[in-house]
C-alpha cells in the first residue's frame, strides 16, 4: 500500500489514532476561546462587554458552522473504537452511560444553575446564588424573562448521549443488517468524489427542507435542524472507524474540500456583514446562508480529518493528559466565562485587559476543576472521567 495513504494500516490494526485525539483537543480548545470571544462580538449572547468589535464577526463566522459537527464526527469515531474495545453493545452502552449521563446530571444540578443565576440577575433578580439555587433554580417555565429549565451548553452532552444510545439500540437489534449498511455505505462513498459532495448535498437538502417549516429551537425533541447537522457526522465517524478504507478518498479530496469551505466561508461573511444585528435577510438569502453553513460543516470536517491523519498522528507525553482534560474543561468553561464576565465587566477595564482577565480566569477555573476532580476518586465520574488506571507492576529481568 502507498505510504501516503494515511493511517489505513494503523486503523486496520485497531491502534489508537493519535491524530484524532489531537483534533478533539484542538476542537474543544477552539470552542472555549470561541465562547470567550462571543463576549466581545456584536450580537446576542448570554453576557456582553460594553465594547464589541465588528472585526470579530469574521473569525466567529468562519468557526461557527463546523466546530460542533467536527466534535460529533470525532465522537462517532471514538464510539466505534470503544465498542470494539468493550466487546459487546451492552458493555459499550453501559460505559457511555457512566461517562455521559453522570456528568450531565452533575452539570444540571451544580454547574448550569450558576449560568441561570447570571441570566436572571441581568433581568432584575436581586437574590444571591445560594437563595437562587435553593428556591428558584428549579422553576419550570418563564422566570425573569428566562426559560427554565435549560441545558445551556450541556445540550451537546445530551445530544451525544441520545445519538450513542440510539446507535447502540440499532446495533443490538439489527447487528448483521447494520454491518451490511455500514459496508455498503462506505463502499459507495469511496467511489470517485462522492465522499465530498454526497454528504454535503444530503445535509443541505435536509436543512433546506426544514428551514421554513420547523423552528430552529434547541431541544432533543424540537431541534430537528440540529439533528440533521449533527447525526450524519457522528455516523460518519463511526463508519470511518469500522471501514478505514475511507481514509483513501479523503486523501484525494481534502484540497477540493478546503476550497469548498473557503467559498462557503466567503458567502457567510458577506451575509453576516450585510445583515447585522436585528436585520433579517430575505428568505432566499437565509436559504443560501444555511446551505453554506451545512456544506462548510461537512467539507471542513473532511479536510480536518485528513490533516489529523497525515500530520498529527503521533503521540506526545502531554497527549493523554490533554485528552483526559478536555471534557472536564468543557463542562466548566461556559459557567466560568459567564460568571467571570458578570463580575469583571462592571469594573470598566480596558477591553484588552477584560479579554486577558477573562481568558486567565477561565483557564484557571478549568484547570482547578480538572485537577481537583481528577485527584479525588469519588469526583472523577462527576466530571466525566473513568476510574484511575493503576500503574503496571515493574517486571524484573528474572521474571521476564
TrEMBL record:
Key word Transcription regulation present in the record?
A: no
Q: Does the keyword Transmembrane helix apply?
A: yes
Q: Which residues form the Acyltransferase domain?
A: 18-370
List the signal peptide residues: none
Q: Name one Pfam family in it.
A: Acyl_transf_3
Q: Which UniProt keywords apply?
A: Acyltransferase, Membrane, Transferase, Transmembrane, Transmembrane helix
- Where would you find the membrane-spanning parts of this chain? 25-46, 66-84, 100-118, 154-174, 195-212, 224-241, 253-271, 291-308, 329-349, 355-373
- Give the Gene Ontology MF terms in alphabetical order: acyltransferase activity, transferring groups other than amino-acyl groups
Which PANTHER family does the record match to this protein? Answer: BLR4337 PROTEIN (PTHR36927), GLUCANS BIOSYNTHESIS PROTEIN C (PTHR36927:SF3)
Name of the protein: Acyltransferase family protein
Q: Cite the source lineage.
A: Bacteria, Pseudomonadati, Pseudomonadota, Alphaproteobacteria, Sphingomonadales
